[in-house]
Each structure stands twice: as structure tokens, then as C-alpha cells.
């Protein structure tokens, strides 16, 4: 399966009437009964999860790998966040209807959040697209459901509470897809959840304490802009603004000499990367970028699953120190889905990420761009660019009570359905899902079984660390 395959499927769907697309969705129930989505048993012939993780290590910065495994070792939930490739391997053996969407590829609940639209409104959407690729809509739904179950276990929820969260969240996906299937295509494309709409829909389901926390989270997101990044990440050194070191998580370029990299050469290469990136922007955005000059660069460790990939933060200034722009320059490799669905049509993995983000998000960062660079470690590498912080805010999942998790899970599920409806056949998928609860009941069973497997995989990682087979650095 490739992007071109999805093009053909989309073209076929466009030639069918609504009635024919509904019939196609209902017919899929016979070929793939909804109850089959409950099934999960790891195929013994599938690669070992630790071997899959190790297969990603060779292309990563070696001195950062202990941080990766240290973060994954913290809990079954943190392990799950870093194990997108093992789960993709597992999902490849599960039931699928054949209806394709632009899949996120890593749709766990912490890859959703707030950010500022170009119109300066806070919106809620998917915010991580490193693994995006056309693929089965079911895979994203199952990763989201499993993340809700695993997070619930991490928070000590009772089994009945976890069941309720997963069932009602996935029911929201089904309900949203059925609603979106009745909308005109342009309305689906424009649909988004801004923060005021979120408050209106979900505030009534929250306690007064949770409403205050939501308001605090929104207020904090509004400060996570370039000025907030300026306060958090910079300092004045000899009268010049510079990125503040916080090794090993943030290391300015001029302090990387000990890593075997020449700082001057690295600065030159990264400057060339910025110049090449500029050419991928639309002319009006290129003109805006030209108002800024590069001041400093630093290597930055991000996320859980991305630790070890090459990621940089660039500080640029416009008129003066009160006019900052922070860009994140992040390495992009093949999606974890490509081993099971076929290679992306885009030879540049950074472009794959950017195109997938623009397809799935209603509004996207104006500075999104991509570039290919030759010279890092003698290798050719792809990168994509975005603003480091632009009103970004995430949920504090580990402190959520069950009611808060339910509201958040429903919001994530609605958002995922809207993203899938933008690029897939919402009418056929909605017809397959139906009006009853069969699908969410099956996904709930899958989530429980996969959470059990994830706990076994986490235990295996801890054993490997204890035995010295894997180096892990905790607390970073």
C-alpha cells in the first residue's frame, strides 16, 4: 500500500454516489465484522519489540539513546509512547476494512493539544505527525484507545472507570464520523475545535475544579509563544542574547565540541539548512522569514519516541530582542508504518510530515517547511521546520480524574474523526460503524488486551536494562 494506492481509492470513492458509498460501508461489515476489531494476540513470528526499537537506534545520536530508554522505562505509559514501531508491527496483523485515510501513525492521547492558529485563536488538534502516512483508519483509533486504557491504569483508575472512558471516547469517534458524513465536503475541511467551542461543549461535564484547571491550561498555552520561549530558553551572555544550556537536553552548538563535532562546521551546515528551508516556503512567508536573522542554535532533546533523532532549536531575531522567532528543526525518517504499508510517495521524509500535517489539521503553522541535507555524519538526512512554541499546550494526563480523562478522550476522538474525514471516505466508514455500540465494544476489548501486552513489553525492557543489555539514563 502506498500514497498512490490511496489516490486510486479516493478517485474511486469520488465516482460513487452517496448511496453506493453507504452500501460499500455496510458490505464491509460482512467481510470484516466489527467484533473482529476486539482481536489481539501477538503473532509469535513478529519481531521482538526490543529488536524493533534497536533497529531504530543505528540512525540516531548514540549518546542520547540512554535518555530514550530511561524515559521509556519510567512506566508502562511512557513505554507505550515510545513504542510506535512495535505497535505498528502488531497492528499489521489485525483486521482492517480497506478504507484508507491520512493516518497520524502515532495517535496516542498526548499527541493532541492546543496551539495558536494563524488567526491567533487557540485550537485543539493533533500536534505530532512524525509517523503520518496514508493507512487504515482503524490503526489510529486502536492506538488512541490503547493509550486511554494504559493512561487509566497508570492513574490507578478502577477497571469499570477505564472501560467507561474507552467505550465513550470511541463512541464519540463513531458519532462524530456519522455526523461528518452528512456534512458538505467544504464544511468538513473547515471544521475545527477552537478553545471556546471546547469550553462550551465540555465544560458542563467538568467539575468546578476541572473547569478552573482548563482555564489555567488555556492561559498557560497563551504564554507558550515566542516571548515565553525567550524567557524560558535564553540568557544574556557578554551583552548578547544566547540559548541557555541545559545539558544534555539543550546544548548550544558552540558547546558540542566534546561530541566529536566541530562547532564552526556544524553552525555552517545548519545555516545552510535554514537557507534551503527558506526555499520551501511560499513567497509571502519567505518574505516574513527574511525579516529575521539567525542568532543562535542548540541541539534539543524532545519527546519520548523522538529521543536520539537530530533536533535543533534556532533563535532568530527581527527588529530587536523584543522580536524573537524560535524554530524547531527536527529530523524526519521513514514512518513506522512504511514497513507494513509501503514506502511514502515523498522521497523527502520531511515533506511527508509537512504534507500529512496539512492534510490532517484544519489550520497549520505558517512556518512549516522541509529540507534535505547532505553532510551530517556523511549521511543524507531530511528535516522539517515548525515554530518551537506557538500557543502550544498539552493536557496533564497523569493528574486527570476519570471524568476529566473521559472529556479529554472524547475531544481527542472527535478530533481524530474530523482528521480522518478530511482525507478518507467518511460516508463509507460511517456506514460501516453504524448506529450501535458494536465497534466501540470491540475496540474496548482490544485496548485491554493491548495494555496487557504493553505491560509485558515494559517489563522486558526493565529486565534488559537491569541485565545491562540496554543502557538507560533516568531523570532526563
Number of strands: 13
Number of helices: 19
Secondary-structure-derived class:
alpha+beta
**What can be said about the biggest beta sheet?**
6 strands, antiparallel
Uncertain segments: none
The percent of residues in helical segments reads 40-55%
The figure for the number of domains is 2
- Rg over alpha carbons: 22 Å
How far from one another are the termini?
A: 38 Å
Instruction: Give the averaged pLDDT, no decimals.
Output: 87
- Large-scale geometry: globular
The strands making up the biggest β-sheet line up spatially as 8-9-10-11-13-12
How much strand? 15-25%
Short structural description:
The chain has about 475 residues and is of the alpha+beta class. The chain has 19 helices and 13 strands. The strands form four sheets. A six-stranded antiparallel β-sheet has the order 8-9-10-11-13-12. Strands 2-3-5 form a three-stranded antiparallel β-sheet.
Amino acid at each position: 500500500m502506498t500514497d498512490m494506492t490511496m489516490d486510486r481509492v479516493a478517485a474511486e470513492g469520488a465516482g460513487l454516489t452517496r448511496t453506493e458509498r453507504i452500501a460499500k460501508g455496510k458490505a464491509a461489515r460482512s467481510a470484516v465484522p466489527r467484533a473482529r476489531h476486539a482481536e489481539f494476540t501477538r503473532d509469535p513470528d513478529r519481531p521482538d519489540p526490543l529488536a524493533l526499537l534497536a533497529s531504530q537506534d543505528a540512525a540516531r545520536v548514540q549518546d542520547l539513546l540512554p535518555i530514550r530508554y530511561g524515559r521509556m522505562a519510567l512506566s508502562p505509559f511512557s513505554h507505550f509512547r515510545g513504542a510506535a514501531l512495535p505497535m505498528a508491527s502488531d497492528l499489521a496483523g489485525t483486521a482492517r476494512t480497506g478504507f484508507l485515510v491520512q493516518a497520524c501513525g502515532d495517535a496516542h492521547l498526548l499527541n493532541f493539544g492546543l496551539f495558536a492558529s494563524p488567526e491567533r485563536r487557540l485550537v485543539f488538534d493533533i500536534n505530532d505527525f512524525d509517523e503520518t502516512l496514508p493507512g487504515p483508519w482503524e490503526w489510529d483509533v486502536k492506538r488512541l484507545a490503547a493509550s486511554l486504557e494504559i493512561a487509566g491504569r497508570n492513574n490507578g483508575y478502577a477497571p469499570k472507570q477505564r472501560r467507561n472512558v474507552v467505550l465513550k471516547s470511541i463512541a464519540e469517534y463513531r458519532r462524530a464520523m456519522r455526523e461528518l458524513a452528512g456534512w458538505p465536503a467544504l464544511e468538513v475541511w473547515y471544521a475545527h475545535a477552537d478553545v471556546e467551542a471546547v469550553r462550551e461543549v465540555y465544560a458542563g461535564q467538568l467539575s468546578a475544579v476541572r473547569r478552573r484547571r482548563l482555564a489555567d491550561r488555556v492561559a498557560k498555552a497563551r504564554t507558550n509563544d515566542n516571548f515565553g520561549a525567550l524567557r524560558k530558553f535564553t540568557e544574556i551572555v557578554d551583552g548578547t542574547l544566547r540559548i541557555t544550556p541545559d545539558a544534555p537536553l539543550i546544548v548550544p552548538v558552540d558547546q558540542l565540541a566534546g561530541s566529536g563535532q566541530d562547532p564552526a562546521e556544524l553552525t555552517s551546515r545548519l545555516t545552510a539548512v535554514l537557507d534551503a528551508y527558506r526555499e520551501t516556503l511560499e513567497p509571502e512567508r519567505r518574505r516574513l522569514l527574511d525579516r529575521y536573522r539567525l542568532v543562535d542554535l542548540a541541539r534539543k532533546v524532545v519527546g519520548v519516541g523522538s529521543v536520539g533523532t537530530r533536533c535543533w532549536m534556532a533563535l532568530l531575531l527581527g527588529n530587536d530582542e523584543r522580536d524573537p522567532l524560535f524554530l524547531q528543526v527536527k529530523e524526519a525518517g521513514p514512518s513506522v508504518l512504511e514497513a507494513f504499508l509501503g514506502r511514502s510517495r515523498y522521497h523527502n521524509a520531511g515533506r511527508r510530515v509537512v504534507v500529512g500535517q496539512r492534510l490532517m489539521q484544519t489550520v497549520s503553522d505558517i512556518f512549516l517547511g522541509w529540507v534535505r541535507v547532505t553532510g551530517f555524519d556523511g549521511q543524507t538526512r531530511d528535516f522539517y521546520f515548525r515554530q518551537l512554541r506557538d500557543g502550544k499546550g498539552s493536557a496533564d494526563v497523569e493528574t486527570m480524574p476519570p471524568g476529566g480523562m473521559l472529556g479529554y478522550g472524547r475531544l481527542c476522538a472527535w478530533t481524530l474523526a474530523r482528521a480522518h474525514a478530511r482525507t478518507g471516505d467518511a460516508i463509507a466508514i460511517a456506514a460501516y460503524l453504524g448506529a450501535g455500540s458494536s465497534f466501540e465494544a470491540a475496540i474496548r476489548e482490544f485496548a485491554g488486551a493491548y495494555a496487557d501486552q504493553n505491560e509485558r513489553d515494559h517489563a522486558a525492557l526493565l529486565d534488559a536494562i537491569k541485565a545491562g543489555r540496554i543502557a538507560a539514563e533516568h531523570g532526563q
